[in-house]
Amino acid sequence: MIIPAIDLIDGNVVRLYQGRYDNSTEYNVSALSLRNQYAEQGATWLHLVDLAGAKDAQQRQLNLLQQLMTASPINIQVGGGVRSEQDVIDLLQAGASRVVIGSLAIRKPALVRQWLQKYGSDKIVLALDVAINEQGEKTLPSHGWIEQSSVTLEQVLTDYITAGAKHVLCTDISKDGTLTGSNVSLYKELTAAYPQIQWQASGGIGQLDDIKALIGSGVAGVILGRSLLEGKFSLTEAIQCWQNG
């Protein structure tokens, strides 16, 4: 499945480079019109990220998120700054089909495992973003890519799978926003090791060949951000590429 992404800061559609707030690009398009455009082009899911809320809980854009999710023509998974159970409740009540949990999944795994069991594995997406070090270890920065940690992807996955985790969005941070291609070998390794997970690949897609490269990797979904915003190809072309693979 191809999943277009919309990242938001102060109501504006933006993209960060490798997760860095000091290296962002703003696009002159409204999030609502972009949502509708993606729906018309065949998307069945949309990935929404509240980057302002991710950085500062006081800056959460809940009103905008509600506008985008209310009576939406497509399913929406939304994340960015989910820090409490009330945040999960607010987003689900606002119309989210799934809530994406990022850094909290690393910092408070016991709490997030409780949410998985309470709300169901189809309502929660774990965003486990990796920084691959020189030893090849997949370490997980613990706070929105800002703080490094020594925790590895494999260490946290085992307990989450036991708790019923089903959806994991995995980004190779070094690829994010670069348009230089996806880390195909990473996803092949993960889908082989953890076939019970519906993996979402994110980061690096710059051309249709990058989508083709992920066909057969085992991933269930491919997140597209900057490549669509910069017109590298259309969403329709991306969906056709994935389906025809």
Task: Write up what this structure looks like.
With 245 residues, the protein is α/β, with parallel strands linked by helices. The protein has one domain (2-244): TIM Barrel (Alpha-Beta Barrel). 36% of the residues lie in helices and 24% in strands. The chain has helices at residues 31-40, 51-55, 62-69, 85-93, 104-107, 109-119, 153-162, 184-193, 208-214, 226-229, 235-244; strands at residues 2-9, 12-17, 20-27, 45-50, 75-79, 98-101, 124-127, 131-132, 138-139, 167-171, 198-202, 221-224. The strands form 2 sheets. The chain has an 8-stranded parallel β-barrel, surrounded by 5 helices. It has a two-stranded antiparallel sheet with strand order 8-9. The longest helix is centred in the middle third of the chain and has 11 residues, at 109-119. The chain starts with a strand and ends with a helix. The mean pLDDT is 93.
